[in-house]
Amino acid sequence: MRSRLAARSTRLVLTAVAAAALATTATGTALAVGGQSKAPVEQVCGTADLTYKVTEETQAGGYFLVTAKARPGITCYLEGTIPSAAFGSRPDGQVHPVEQAVTDTIKLSGSTAAYAGINPKSTNDDFGTEFDRMALAVAGDEEGAISVRLPSTTLVDKPLSTNWHADPADAVPFS
User: Apex CA 142: angle with CA 108 and CA 43, to 5°?
Assistant: First the structure.
């Protein structure tokens, strides 16, 4: 009788420990034995998981190079789709894809970066609207969009974007 009770209480303790470990892992960190250290859990990148830098490039008629890096302590995967970006709130300010297929997923951690090229004006005329900011989010996380200051006030008309790439040379938006 005593051995069955001991086996049952051992199972209950193991079940409780497993449930606590699952709950801890679901929140993004796991405790090591004794609760001494935390190990990052790899996840899909959200907008808030990244820092962004926008620079102006002259290649291909001029475009913005968006550089995204994981925040300290975060390791995440950025899908090879276009960033969700827009200039203003009108539908014609929404960025459209240059590429026809999804590219490789990029693992971001530490100094590893992902790059997307955004051509703010794909038309060959003097029409458009000037902007000094752009809304930016990871595709699928539009509710978490942030406002990014552009390097200079820019004329925008039918903007286009590349997917996220591991190499900035692949992020030139040839249209």
Answer: 30
Predicted model pTM: 0.76
Residue tagged 């595709």 (tokens): 139
Closest CA to 86 of 52, 127, 133, 128: 133
Mean pLDDT taken over the chain: 82
Structure tokens at 79: 């899908």
Is 91 strand, coil or helix? helix
Residue 140's contacts (CB-CB under 8 Å, 6 or more residues apart) are 84
What are the C-alpha distances in Å from 153 to residues 56, 87, 135, 168?
11, 11, 14, 23
Euclidean distance between CA atoms 95 and 158, whole angstroms: 7
Instruction: Please check the confidence at residue 86 and state whether its pLDDT lies above 90.
Output: yes
Q: Which two tokens stand for residue 77?
A: 């995967």
Q: How far apart are CA 76 and CA 45, in angstroms?
A: 5
How far does Cα 143 stand from its chain's mean position? 13
Distance CA 80, CA 90 (A): 25
Helices (H) and strands (E) in the chain, counts: 1, 13
